[in-house]
Amino acid sequence: MMSPQTIRNGAIGAVVGSGLGFVPPVVLLAPAVGGGIAGYLERDGAKRGAVAGGVAGVLMAALTAVLAGTVAFARFGDLPFASPDVPSEGLALAAALSLIASAGQIVVAGVGGGLGGVLEADRQWATRRERPAGEAQLRSWPRILGSRLAGSVAFGVVAVVLTTVLDPLIWPSLLVSLPFGIIAGIGVAVLANHYLARAAGRRLDWQPIAVGAVAVILVFGLVVGGLSVLGQQRQAATTESTYQYEVTIAADETLENATFYVPVPTENGSSRLGERFVEDVRYDRYAPAVRGDDPDLDPAPVDFSYELVETERGQMLAISADRIEVTTIYYREVENGTMGWSERISAEEYDPDDPDMGTQNDGRITFTATLVAEEAIDTADPFDAEPLLAPGADRTEIDCLTGDSATHRCFEYEGRMYADYETSEAATVYVSAQLDGRNEWFSGGWTGNEYREWSRVELRGPQSGWVLADGELDVGSGNYRT
Q1: pTM score, whole prediction
Q2: In a domain, 133, yes or no
Q3: Rounded to whole angstroms, how far apart are CA atoms 110 and 32?
Q4: DSSP string, 129-177
Q5: pLDDT at 138
Q6: 300 and 443 in one domain?
Q7: Same domain for 35 and 112?
Q8: Which domain holds residue 121?
Q9: Rounded CA gap, 311 and 17, in Å?
Q10: Number of structural domains, the chain?
Q11: How confident is residue 398, by pLDDT bands cut at 50, 70 and 90?
Q12: Which of 304, 337, 361 corresponds to the end of one domain?
């Protein structure tokens, strides 16, 4: 029967466990610790310790519910079930999850209480047992080392397995796997100490130990297997493979009668991304922050035309415009205490030797086209089946500046672009084409792998003809499923 002492011990454990519940690193351990303290204080074996731990779990669950309701009332001004704006389905799901969490809290606290009762009972048994002088000290070291070794092995196995299995479901999975590993390690260490201590005075019956171990392994295997299946399904459902083709033209002065031929992603002699670019490209123009909200300062619209063309260098994307007007913005940095901002000034006020003054322009334009792949992209070896900006380029393999894995490789090569436009001799124009092929999925957090190719060139003054461009290709970057 429930005694006042059991309720008192459970209350003490609940206070300690609830206090630990406010410490994020050990919040999942709080029910086990609170229940363990209650079971140890009960001083009446594993069964009564489990009861005291269960009482601690019930009190902790009740306190959690009260705190959650108080926070909801303070946040929304009313309890959730009193508001007509809360859908009944969502409320029912929240209630079910709360009940499951409360039941889990009680079970974990009960298990902790049982372990606490076992630990305290072993202490009493060792104290009462009569043995020759020095024998207790001699025999305690193997028992202590053996139980700690068993607990360490259990902790490592549970933590590693759960970390791997929960990775597609929870990020970071270590926040869950480590507390469960600690609980498993403590439980195995306490039970191992119990059986080793009792075995010193009598023959140990291994049959119940073997049955219990097999049962625990089977249950753990079923849980891990179910979570693994859910994780794989989550990965498959969230996997997305996309190509993105981006062209950038950046000029610091106005261009007239401009035409650019840039590399286009090609596979098997055709370009799906190039066709998508021509049909449905979007472009963004950089807007200096110093312009303010004055509509008269918005850049003049540009009437671009796009076309896939066959050239002596292969298929290219042609981007043309009669005029790309570029406006230079002059500004000074203004500070007022800890705050600062950029204030526009006139060209006459601008002093290039003043470090608080600067210039920006609105000549950077970025064009983007995206295509969703029907199957996973071969990002580790895209040379045969994936689109590339320069499929037949003579590439040289180089050391990658970032990343270090068996699949990550980097190359450089010389490419070609065509530029034809009128501008001042001092004008600088930057042109680049970039291709990204990515596989992404949710595995605890968003992760994936990609290959990326660039071709870029910087030009000075007016141009009319083919120019050399620097090409780079990175393959096999990121994480790959094993």
Answers
A1: 0.64
A2: no
A3: 8
A4: ----TTHHHHHHHHHHHHHHHHHHHHHHHHHHHHHHHHTTTSTTTHHHH
A5: 46
A6: yes
A7: yes
A8: 1-128
A9: 74
A10: 4
A11: very high
A12: 361
